Amino acid sequence: MTALLFALAIYVLALGTIGIVSNRKSKKTSADFFVASRGLGSFVMLMTMFATTMSAFSLLGVPQSGYLDGMGMLAGIGFGDAFIGFWIFLFGYRIWKAGRANGFITPTEFYRHRFNSDFVGICYMVNAFIFVFPFIGIQTIGGGNALAVATNGLITKEMAMIITVAVIIVYTILGGIKASAWADTMQSCIMVVSCLVVFVLSATYFKDGGFASATNQVIAAGNESLLTLPGPKGLWNWKYMVSYALMGGMSAPLWPQVFSRYYMNKNSASMKKMALLWPLMCLVLFLPMVLVGVWGTVIMPGVSNPDQILPLIVTKLFPPFVGAFIIVGIFAALMSTAASQLVALSTMVSRDIYLKYIDKNADDRKQILVGRISIIVIGCATLILGLKPPAIISTMASWVFTGNMTLVPMTLAALYWKGTTKAGAIASSIVTFVLNVGFLSGLIPKTLAFGFMTWVPSLLVGTIVLIVVSKLTKPLDSTLVDTYFNRIWKDEKNRLALRK
Amino acid sequence: MTPWLIALTVIFFIGFPFFAWKTYLPLVFGIPAWVIYVCVMFGILTLFLYLFKIKYWDKLDDSVDVDEEG
Predict the structure, then answer these.
(1) Which helix or strand (DSSP H or E) is residue A186 part of?
(2) Contact at CB, B34 and A229, closer than 8 angstroms
(3) Which chain B residue has the Cα nearest residue A203?
(4) Best label site of A108, A201, A495, B42, fewest CB within 10 Å?
C-alpha cells in the first residue's frame, strides 16, 4: 500500500512539474496553448497520439475482453487500431496541410472553412460534445474503481475520481496542449512498460512458469474456447470482427483530440514516422493485455467485476513496488485520454463558440483565459457526471466509437471529392447521426444491420445520401474548391511535375 | 500501389480463417498459431506502410503555402 501511494505521489508530482515547465516555456499565444505552435517532433507526436487514443479501455477493457470473450480482441480492435497508421496518411496528412495553410486550430474550423458553412461546423461540434463528454466521465469512473480495488478501499472510489480530475485540470490549465503532449509522452512510456511487465510476470505465476505453461493450464481448466475464434459466446464471428476492426481504425482518428493533433506536427516527417511505428505500438499493447485476460481465468476464476481483472491480478501476484507501477500505468492510460479530450473540448469552446459567436476580436490572452475556464468547467462537470452517473452515461460512452463514424463520409468527401456540396455534407452527417443513434438506442432494430455492427448500414446510407444530395445541389464556390485541391493539396502533383 | 503488397493483403484475408477458426492448435510458446499469424500481420502492415511511404508519400511535396489572411 505504501509503495502504491508513494508511486502515485511521484506520478502526480511529475505531472505537476510538466505543467509548470510547459507553462514557463509557453509563448502565451493561442496557437501555442491549443496546438503547441505546430512544432511537435516525431517522438512526442507518436507518444501523445498513442496515449490519447489508448484510453483506460486498453488496460482495463482489453484484459476484460480476454477474460470473457478470449483472444478475438487482438484480431478485432487490436489489428483495426494498427490501421490507424494508414488512416493517419488518409486523414491526417491533408488535414495537417490544410491546418498549416489556413491557421486552423480546431477541427470545426476545418469543416466550417472547407464547406463554407457554420452549420457543418456546428454538426461536428454537437457530435463531438455528445460522444466525447460522457467518455471523459467514464474515464474518471474507471480510475476511481481501479484505485479503490488496488488500495482495498483505503482510497474510496469518489476520492480517487476527485484526485484524478483535479490533477488533470491543474496540469492542463498550466501548460495547455503542450503539457498534455509531454505528459502523454511520459504516460505512453509507463503504459508500454506496464504491459510488458504484466505479461512476463503473469506467466511466472503458473507451475513451471512460462507462456506455454500458462496457456496449457487455461486449456486444462476447460477454457480452450477462449483461445479460438469466435470465442466462448460466439462474439467474434467474422462480421463482428471485420466491422469492429474497421471502426477501430476509422473512428478514433476523427476524435477531436486526435484531429487537433494532426495540426501539431512540426513537419510531414514526424507524421510519417508516427504512422510507421503505430502498428508495432498497438501490438506491444494489445497482445500482452489480451493474453493476461485469458490467463486471468485461471489465476482468478469467477471474479464478479471482470473489468478489474488486471488490478486484481496485480494486487494478488506482484511485489508491491511492481504492482504500484502497473496501477500507475492504468492511471496513465485513462488520464492521458481524459486530459486530451478535456483540452480538445475547451479549445472548441474558446475558438468555436467564444471567438466565433461572442467576441470576434478576442485576443490570444482572452482565448487562453476562456480555454482555461472551460477546462475547469468541463472537468468539474465530468466529475459530477462520474460521481452521480445517470444510467445512460455508460451507454453513451460505449457509443463513442460508433457515434464518431458519423463523421467518416463527410470527412473523406471533404478531403478527396471536389464535388461535395454543403447540402451533401449536412444531409450526410444528419442522416448518419440519426441512424447511428436510432440503432444504438434500439429504436431501429439491430436485425437491419444483418449481423454487422450498426455503424455499417448507417455509414452506407450516409455515403449514398452524401453522393446523391451533392449531385443534386449547388456546387461549392469554385475558388474555395481550387484553394484546397489546386493549391493546398493538388499542388503536390503540380510541383512534382515541375521538378521533373 | 505495389501489386505484391496487395497480394499479401489478399493472402491474409484468405488465409486468416484457415488459421483462426475453431482451433487454437498448434501452440507456439503457449500462443495459438493464429495469434502468431495475426502478430505477423502487424509486421506486414508496418512493412506495407514503409513501402507506401518511400514509394508514394515521400515523393509528395510537403511544402505549404501559408494563407496570410488565414
Answers:
(1) helix A157-203
(2) yes
(3) B30
(4) A495
